[in-house]
Amino acid sequence: MTQLAMQENSSSSRKRILKISILAISIYSTLYGCARADDGIEFNTDILDVKDKSNIDLSRFSKGNYIMPGDYSFKIRVNQNELEEQPIPVYVSDTDSKQTLACFKPEIVQQMGFKEEFLSQFPLWHKNQCVDITSLKGVDIRPDMGENTLNVNVPQAYLEYTSDNWVPTSMWDNGVPGLLADYSVDVTSRKNNDQSGSDKTISGNGTMGANLGAWRLRGDWQANYENNADGTDSGQKEWTWNRVYLYRAIPSMGAKLTLGEDYLNSDLFDSFSFIGASLVSDDNMLPPNLRGYAPEVTGVAKTNAKVIISQQGRIIYQSQVAAGPFRIQDLNSAVSGTLDVRVEEQDGSNQQYKVNTASVPYLTRPGSVRYKLYGGKPLGTEHSVEGQDFASSEMSWGINNGWSLYGGIVASKDYRATAIGVGRDLLALGALALDVTRSNAELDTVNRQGQSYRLSYSKRFDETDSQVTFAGYRFSEKNFMSFNDFLNYMSTDDAFQQGKEMYTISFSQQLKKLGLSAYLNYSHQTYWNAPAEDRYSVSLSRNFDIGRWKNINMSLTAYRNEFSQGTDDGAYLSMSVPWGDSGTVSYNMTSGGGSNSNRLGYFDHLDNGDNYQMAVGASEHEANVSGYYDHMGNEGEIIGNLDYQQSEYNSLGMTLRGGITATPKGVALHRVNGMGGTRVMVDTGAASDIPVQGFGSSTQTNYFGKAVITDVSNYTKNNLSIDINSLPKNAEAHGSVEQATLTEGAIGYRKFDVISGEKAMAIIRLADGSFPPFGASVRNAADQEVGIVNDDGQTYLSGLHSGEKMNVQWEGEMQCVITIPDKISGLDQNGNLLLPCGH
After folding, report:
1. Buried residues in 700-738 as b, exposed as e (16+ CB within 10 A)
2. pLDDT tens column, 762-774
3. Where is the PapC N-terminal domain (predicted)?
4. How would you classify residue 329: left for phi > 0, otherwise alpha for psi between -120 and 50, otherwise beta?
5. Euclidean distance between CA atoms 439 and 294, whole angstroms
6. 609 and 632 Cβ atoms separated by less than 8 Å
């Protein structure tokens, strides 16, 4: 009806609009005896401007909440939470032959989030196949046929805990079966001025996987190819499967089960790789405000550079970054322990440092228990099994609102370590945890026993707008051995680096009145048998205005890395000024590695989401030029960069990052967030180039009407939508928002009701020369309503394709079929299609 008003401006069209508007008013306003929503409704057809008042079909509007019996596919919306679309039959009520009811089978009711005590109270009907949820007082079901949705209104007292962005475990979606392959590939070509050829490097990492039900199979890989101009390492190739594993969520236990190759991610013990099994309580299954944190990695790139983050040789993240400070915040929250960071600069230099991801461990809600169970055999290089069978367990118990008790053990035939600790929520003073670990290692000639003590602290100071993200101190006795130390000793029978003391702190401060932000990170590690290591970094940033220039930013980042090999100092000073609608002019100075450089650059965002950066500068009296371009395509992301350093080198680099997801519903290339992570395949039917949006990004459906959105969260309500303001002219969306709450690694599937094709006014005529009744429905092969018959068979149709057949329905049944002609053009004097309706 609204489409007609938008498309027709002639006098006759306005009359048609008036008639259909009157029909709508009569359906919803002119009724008799409407005591209940499911009572029969009688329409006063006398007020309709219709020539033949005897040829009107309003049967589908004659009873509140009435649906014709049959098999349907509905979305279910329980209050404001949606379940995925699924088949739901509609039957005649057992007690009222004039009433129809949607049949909710027991497995569907289990997904609605009712408390266990109420699930057993529902009576059954229709040969005990269907559950009557309306037997609970206040439960109401209202169909919305326009959005193909059943709205189930339930008093909150009957439901499990919910929040705006979290739903009960019964509503979690395991997704559809499918295959996936995500990748990130870096290509670099670098030519030094004293070389006749170029050094070429291709490196990459990614994840391949398969989903079936709640199970996820994953294989993480990394590869490298080098071809140097001087012949060294020429043509060297390397492909490694880092990890092959199988996992699934176990919502009833709030835990994740993993089989295969895994890493011991512990809050108490050092990490190592093993093959076996683990069962770990997953904080991501908790409401968002009760979850832990994901680590972040910061640093400064002197040039366009590649950042590689790894753990025990396994690459978990790599990407090209532009010159300047960088902050990587999209690491998986499951990552814990010490991370190795390598910054490979285009000038051939490298930065290497470690980041400790530890947080205050095991502060647990009152009455709750968190746990981790591991067992198997440790792994060495190239997946070789080394060492003795081991088992490890740890847990934390929330004693009350303030105290948590935690502890754990890791043991093998010749090694045992036991830890016990206590955590205290100090409320206004922060959170504190203290624990002690005792190890006992049976070596070849001696028994080593020792202890390690750790103190951890975290605090948010609201009154000063500052935060100690993590502060910790650890002291280990000389004879203390971690299990990782024990494994290294047993495999090499050699001396190992014995940790002694470690300090670490992360601190941030906001001074809003001055527009100043400060961030400090410090770590200090000493050893019993090796030199100490230190890493400092500090960042200061301030926003201010100068006259008509607004939102100017000035920042300073300085760092120092002290290792046994020497000291690496550096600083980065930058100033940026907004320019034009979306551009930024910047100046920066970099100092490090015994050299200084100055650069003047320009950065801009394009309307299509791409961004680029250009810069010129000088270093040690030599000019340099660089460029950086990031293209966010629908099928993947392409990052390109170039660097030229006078008298030294020139280089080109490119990153290709993306993935492919295949399900029984279709296949699509797409961008990726986390390798092998959760995603949703969006289906818009036959409509292509439909703009769809996730949490923070947008894409378009491909030629087959499919797109994959990867910026979705595990166990959290995600909203997916169609950008109706950017729809192609030949497309219409009936319902533009979908919800999905997915388990980890799931491939969700959501279908939008989109009609695409030509639009036209038509006259539908029956074989005997009469017309379908006023209010009859025209539906396409996908059972989408594409038009409603008006007076004298006049119908505004959308989604037309040459040669397509459409059904015309009234009295609840398909009555005849129309065929769209090969050439969609006006056939009568008013420019209307003449469509005979037959069988």
Report:
1. bbbeebbbbbbbbbbbbbbebbbeeeebeeebbbebbeb
2. 999 999 999 999 8
3. 42-185
4. alpha
5. 29
6. yes
Distance CA(800)–CA(819), nearest Å, equals 10
Domain-wise residue ranges, the chain: 1-48, 70-171, 254-288+298-605, 660-755, 757-839
- Domains 660-755 and 757-839 belong to one CATH topology: yes
Largest CA distance in the chain: 106
The 3-state DSSP class for residue 599 equals strand
Alpha carbon distance 214, 216 (integer Å):
7
Amino acid type, 549: W
Q: Of the candidates 71, 112, 70, 75, which has an alpha carbon nearest to the alpha carbon of residue 752? A: 75
Nearest Cα to Cα of residue 751 among 148, 88, 2 = 148
Query: What is the 3-state composition of the chain as percent helix, strand, coil, each rounded to the nearest 5?
Result: 10, 55, 35
**Under 8 Å between Cβ of 671 and 632:** yes
All residues at 6 or more sequence positions from 410 whose CB lies less than 8 Å from its CB, including other chains: 264, 266, 269, 390, 391, 392, 416, 417, 483
3-class secondary-structure state, position 337: coil
Which residue in this structure is represented by tokens 């980065």?
Answer: 572
Give the pLDDT band of residue 369 (cuts 50, 70, 90): confident
> CA–CA separation, 70 vs 91, rounded Å?
7
Nearest to 837 by CA among 807, 817, 821, 809: 817
- The Cα–Cα gap between 407 and 398 comes to 12
Distance CA 326, CA 555 (A): 13
Backbone angles phi, psi at 311, to 5 degrees: -140, 115
Three-class SS state of 602: strand
State the pLDDT at residue 701. Answer: 94
At the topology level, CATH places domain 70-171 in Ubiquitin-like (UB roll) (3.10.20)
Identify the three-state secondary structure at position 725.
Answer: helix
Q: What percent of the chain has pLDDT over 70?
A: 85
Q: Report the DSSP pairing between strands 833-837 and 758-766.
A: parallel
Q: Indicate the fold that domain 660-755 takes in CATH.
A: Immunoglobulin-like (2.60.40)
- In sequence order, what are the residues at sequence separation of 6 or more whose Cβ sits closer than 8 angstroms to the Cβ of residue 327? 296, 297, 298
pLDDT for position 319: 76
Number of helical (H) and strand (E) elements in the chain, helices listed first? 5, 54
- Tell me the C-alpha distance between 322 and 628, whole Å: 7
Q: What are phi and psi of 18, to 5 degrees?
A: -60, -45
> Taking the CA of residue 115 as centre, how many other CA atoms within 13 Å lie in the half-sphere pointing to its CB?
12
Length of the chain: 839
The SS3 assignment for 47 reads helix
What single-letter amino acid sits at 476? S
- Whether the CB-CB separation of 458 and 505 falls below 8 Å is answered with no
Pairwise CA distance, residues 606 & 259, whole Å = 45
Q: Which of 77-81, 217-221, 818-822 has the highest mean pLDDT?
A: 217-221
In terms of CATH architecture, what is 757-839?
Answer: Sandwich (2.60)
The per-residue pLDDT of the chain, averaged, comes to 83
Would the CA dihedral through 127, 128, 131, 135 be positive or negative?
positive
CB burial of 251-285 (b: ≥16 within 10 Å; e: otherwise) equals beebbbbbbbbbbbbbbbbbbbbbbbbbbbbbbbb
Q: Which is nearest to 521 in space by CA: 535, 532, 502?
A: 535
Residue of 603, 656, 645 whose CA lies nearest to 628: 603
DSSP characters for 302-314? Answer: SSSEEEEEEETTE
Q: How far apart are CA 668 and CA 658, in angstroms?
A: 11
Q: Residue 505: helix, strand or coil by DSSP?
A: strand
pLDDT greater than 70 at residue 294 = no
